[in-house]
Structure formats: structure tokens, C-alpha cells
Amino acid sequence: MAERKAVNKYYPPDWTPNKGSINKFKGTHALRERARKLHMGILIIRFEMPFNIWCNGCENHIGMGVRYNAEKTKVGMYYTTPIYKFRMKCHLCTNHFEIQTDPANLDYVILNGARRQERRWDPTQNEQVVPEDKEVSKKLVTDSMFCLEHNVNDKVNQKTILPSLRKLEESREKWKDDYLLNKTLRQQFREKKKEIACTENKDKQLLKKFSLNIALLPEADEDRKLAGLLKLAPLHSMF
After folding, report:
1. Domains contained in the chain, number
2. What are the E-state strand segments in the chain?
3. Cα–Cα–Cα angle for 193, 197, 203, nearest 5°?
4. Which spans are transmembrane here (predicted)?
């Protein structure tokens, strides 16, 4: 469909190639309605929500990935990277909220109209490998003593993490064969299924023998020991 529209364009009878493109001839922009505020520095784009938020107007939850028609505006620069602001309207109420890019932290910042649902954590708490920030990277280049201390700390951390890495590699090699893993799991499932069927058959025979209609619990070693200590005696021996 897109190729058909691109090839079969309508050319008015009074248009000639020396008058430029069709958009120039008609006085329209190639982006049509999306560029209606382009003279104000605003471009209409399709914006996808980068994280979960709460709307301050209706207090409803808006999930990550929900898309809006947003007004994109350039508001500044971070070194050579432009900073953009996106303004959009909530689809559940009349409230508008604004989100701005944060190139310094590789993130987005909510300016107004909404609040972020906090699901961030410190990656060092669960022993994740965290890349160095820009200040540390600069000191590694400019400060020789700091670089030496940093290398010593890296060697100490390497010795600490090395046993865990070896265990992960061993477990990975152990389960590397997908066929063997599948075969082992299916064999365990069959054995467990046979045990359950055998236990159910014994329980049915026992209930039928004593004409009982109760649910039997699985046997335990303590029950066997206790049953071995009990002795049944006739009633006349008690007097």
C-alpha cells in the first residue's frame, strides 16, 4: 500500500516540473498536520511512554509503552546533544504533562502534570556490574595515583568475584546439552508419576479392605516407628 501511494501521485494539470515539488506547488508541508506548529518550533510526533507514571489530573496509572501524540520542542543542549521536551494530553482526562530528555543521566525527567512510579534501585545492592561514571573516568585519565588505587581495587574485586564466576561457568557447562536436560526432566517426571500411581493404588486397596471413606495422608518415618511401639491386647486382659 505504501509503495502504491508513493508511485501513483496526483499531479494537477497546471503543474510543471520547474515549479518544484507537489508540496511546494500546493503550499503544504511534507508532514502535513504534524507540521502545523513548525513555525513555533514544535513538531507533532508519536511518543511512547518510557516508564510507568501516575497522572496528576485523574490519578490514573499510565503504563510504560502507551503512545501519545506529543509536541516535541528543543529546549537546550547538553554539550553537542540536544535536549527535547514533549508535551502531551492524558487520554483519560484533560490534564497535560511534560517530559524532558536527560542526556547527562541517559534518562527522562517529568517536568509537570504527572509523577513517576518509582521502580529504580541501586544496582550495587544486588551485586551487579556497574559501569564507571564520567567523573571516575576523567580521574582515571588525569590522576595517576587514583588510577593506581583503582587498579588495586579492581584486582581485589576480581579475586572476590572469581569463585562465583567459576560456579556459574560450571553450572552452565553442566546444562549445556539441551537434549540431555530434556531427557533428565522427562525421566524424573515419569518416575514421580509412577510413584504417585503406586501410592494411590495402595491407598485404594487399604480403604477397600477396612471399608473406610477417608483421605489418607502420606506415610512418614515417625508414624512407622510409633506404630511399631504400639501393641494391641484383648479387653479381658485389662481387668
Report:
1. 3
2. 42-48, 53-55, 61-62, 67-78, 81-89, 96-102, 107-112, 114-116
3. 145
4. none
